């Protein structure tokens, strides 16, 4: 029932077999999670992407990635075997340029529910990152999806805020 | 028609709108791609996972992630907006321990087709990484999906092998 | 937060990027929406379809379309990028003959939730219309999905009833 | 509105057309259902599977089937045309050996909702059974999914417990 | 085996039950289909959408609809019960303004395969139209999806070109 | 590479981990598989279903199950973790009454491909059986899905015909 303070893998049962966590007795609260992923494109590709995308920030690479991230977050429970199927109250993906060579994706997911939405936020960020990769891959095979991590989480047993949050 | 040698974004058309790449005139060849993702769990969690998973390497965290990765690779074209729907001849996910604190996921995808399977390999590795995250997240919020990248690619216009391959 | 009385596109944020609408603060109410689609088959095809389908109304063209419409409505949030994932309390699709040459599909969707189900009703009607098209397309390429629209909507901020409802 | 005591097919409307059941007026209660499926593998295949899977019960055939069953249960409403889309509070799949020649799969599904989860439990058991079949089919074409049935159901209008439960 | 010149419903078998069409004996050819859908937004909404979208044509309403249309086309066989699962060589969605009050969506799908891609083109156009509806629906309930139809089809038994093509 | 004559589990690799089977070197041939499932409804429910469904065999229970079975067969590779994603040339589901108390579902799947379609046929039969269960479950909790098995298989390394085929 605990979220993270006992040293055991909650997704394994006593027999060591994979298992969902029963959330039937939990109370529905407003849960919010934010995740971040950094994609290193290299300065040349970043310039090309920026040329199309900035300063208007309406360009197709970013927008395609934003939409893919939101749609991916909605499908988290289909992709991650032991995730609970959840609705979402909201999901926002933003992408910013990190000069000289990278972009930063941030995905926020929220729900009023019995379990957290970390995996939704992380999946949304990851699918957005993969989509940027896909749209730029004709230009280089050295694109790197670097540092996908949770930034903050509220509404569960214990809040979490990463130092960079 | 070129895969990666002209400095343009193939997923944008002349009007700057997102677009698929027409592969109708391409020849079907045997395509293989390998991608790698590194997940930093920390030494304590790694020990727990190893305890359950090694030396037999049959344990549930790794196996759950392997299956999720394979199933994720099969759904790449649903997740990445401009990817072609493809069959797969094969998909293999392997996970190895990188002491003291990480695991390395490698995903190989292959197909006899008109377009490459880099995105399938990268998506498989990413979904496996997210699944490991999910199964260990009750133990820490500081798990990091550190680096996801293409390792090799053969069968298209030009082969690619990353220095680490 | 308003549903439709301010002249702005709620699915774009201040930066002009696509965004979901946060429904976290909304109250769950019983929402019902009805949509209608008209498919012009031509009198000859309609006679064939009727021959199989009427007067029993159990025939396979209509039933296939009814089931496809219901199943399509359930998948609305996978198809429409910024739709919230929602359960449904009910979904009904009915098809009636509009002599001399058309059929009328009506799809009703309802949910007790924080956001409306217009898109579910419209998606259900559209998928049913496409299914009728598919089942009759061997007979003509001139089938027309003539008009798909919302007929009524209740349970949100303001009710709506189209003149034809 | 009744669940099972009147002799009519609730999934057909007055016109004999397929229809969902409106659950809008129902109260959300804690619903639990258990289903069981028996797969006859033959003694030789069972020995092979056991060799890999027992006594640790961590082996890949069983675990793959467990995960497939849980993931299948989550997708029930996509597969069964008139099922309501539901979240799940929990889903557990267990597999035990029934000497000399079979395995028994049990799938438990639970939700706090307006409608039961029998179909989720039955779908989870069936997909797990199909997965065992798939993993063993290279060894024999005579594998039999012998009997899939509901074992118990609580939380709806009337509880049910099969004699074997 | 004929595509459209005999007056019978190919998706019903001799017993009147729904059925797929066997394409096993057909030859794979390059198939292209184009479909069109018109969405009547009204002049005021069109101005708002244009303001964001034109003259750059990179704006988010159109781009979101383009991506949704392409992704929808890829999922046609999941939505339309008797459609064959197909890959796609290409899928292009374009949206143009039809003054004073409407937008025109055109979806082209192509494949080298044994069966046509009319349904993919029509589904792509329909999902794009529904997405425009969704993004503008906060402004009006009188948006109309009008005249979804096939424009051309080549590569099958007989080519088709609508008068407007 | 062999399909079924060596006593090993092809879906486990040398390390005992789950794995797909590489079909890259296989030749595409016409593959056909048939599977059968028996659903014991009891004589009373069968009479009700027959009343609606026979003698026309166009009734909604059977048709709903037929469509669900075909749609389920198309999604086999999403449900069964290690199945290859495949197109299908054809899929037929038929349902017949087995007096006094049961129905027999038969699902045929075919493809021109590198691997067999047994799992598609078995999945189609199983989803059709579950759908019949769903549509009749309001009448009894004692419905039984009995004996799902492969009936025949041709086009691979070795043909198979069950004694009952």
TrEMBL record, chains A, B, C, D, E, F:
Substrate binds at residues 82-84, 119-120. Catalyzes the conversion of (8S)-3',8-cyclo-7,8-dihydroguanosine 5'-triphosphate to cyclic pyranopterin monophosphate (cPMP). Keywords: Lyase, Molybdenum cofactor biosynthesis. It is an enzyme of class 4 (lyase). Pfam families: MoaC (PF01967). It comes from the Bacteria. The active site is at residue 134. It catalyses: (8S)-3',8-cyclo-7,8-dihydroguanosine 5'-triphosphate = cyclic pyranopterin phosphate + diphosphate. Homohexamer; trimer of dimers. Belongs to the MoaC family. NCBIfam families: moaC, PRK09364.1. Residues 20-156 form the Molybdopterin cofactor biosynthesis C (MoaC) domain. This is Cyclic pyranopterin monophosphate synthase. SUPFAM superfamilies: Molybdenum cofactor biosynthesis protein C, MoaC. The gene is moaC. The keyword Methyltransferase does not apply. Its EC number is 4.6.1.17. Pathway: Cofactor biosynthesis; molybdopterin biosynthesis. InterPro entries: MoaC, MoaC_bact/euk, MoaC_sf, MoCo_biosynth_MoaA/MoaC, Mopterin_CF_biosynth-C_dom.
